[in-house]
Amino acid sequence: MITNSVLIALIHEENDDAQLQPVGTTNLPPDENVVDPGVNQHLETVAHPDDVTQGDYIKAGTNGVADSSANHTDISAGTLNVYSLLELLNEKVYNQALVHWVVAGPTNYTVNYDSSEDGGNNGAMDGDFFDHEEQMVLTNYYDAVYGANVFLIHMGSDTNRAGCAPKPDDQAPARALVFTGVAGGYKYKVIGHELGHTCYGLSHSTELGNLMYPSVKQKDGTLGIGHRLRKAQWFRIHSD
Ligand SMILES: [Zn+2]
Q1: How far apart are CA 43 and CA 116, in angstroms?
Q2: 200/167 Cα distance (integer angstroms)
Q3: Which residue in 70, 109, 133, 233 has the fewest CB atoms around it within 10 Å?
Q4: How far is the CA of 3 from the centre of ligand 1 (A)?
Q5: What is the pTM assigned to this prediction?
Q6: What is the whole-number distance in angstroms between the Cα of residue 81 and the centre of ligand 1?
Q7: Which of 45, 34, 49, 32 is nearest to 72 (CA)?
């Protein structure tokens, strides 16, 4: 029996901009501040085309009207039931390969990972496996005490990904992101799947119902990912 530990972190996006002039206010000087970056000093509001972004503020612009509505709604990563996760990992999935998981957390962080200052997670690939905002989360919130770290983040504009993990190597500790917007009720299976990638180097399986099936659902909407592991996968886990 192998024991492995995983820290689960819920990463909530903090949006705390303040409305300085109510939307629709007229006769403002063009450089009048309409939206303020709030306590975190990051602007998370995308300016209305009639307003102007200058530094961390949005200004009324030449029409003298406050058109932008301040973004002050946090984006929740949702919740996670540790017992449901433990049940899936230890009683349905990894018990087949004689791996026992210890789960720590979930730890909640409300942070501004939004370096592109558009109020949410872009989720876009920029050539690297993770975009710059996701990379920031993976770097800043990693806790090396645990065998693996899984970060749950609300899905941004890229709705194709349920989760992703770098391949394990000595330079890259075991970390993964799971996107709660898409994974929804499948998030526990997606966590199990990403742990397979990042801790044991498991690659994708074409077998329906396998833990390592590459997508949550098939194209026709029926189940794709499952909780099955095959013997070759157990051996891979034990050879790691
Ligand atoms: Zn995968």
Answers
A1: 9
A2: 9
A3: 109
A4: 22
A5: 0.88
A6: 22
A7: 45
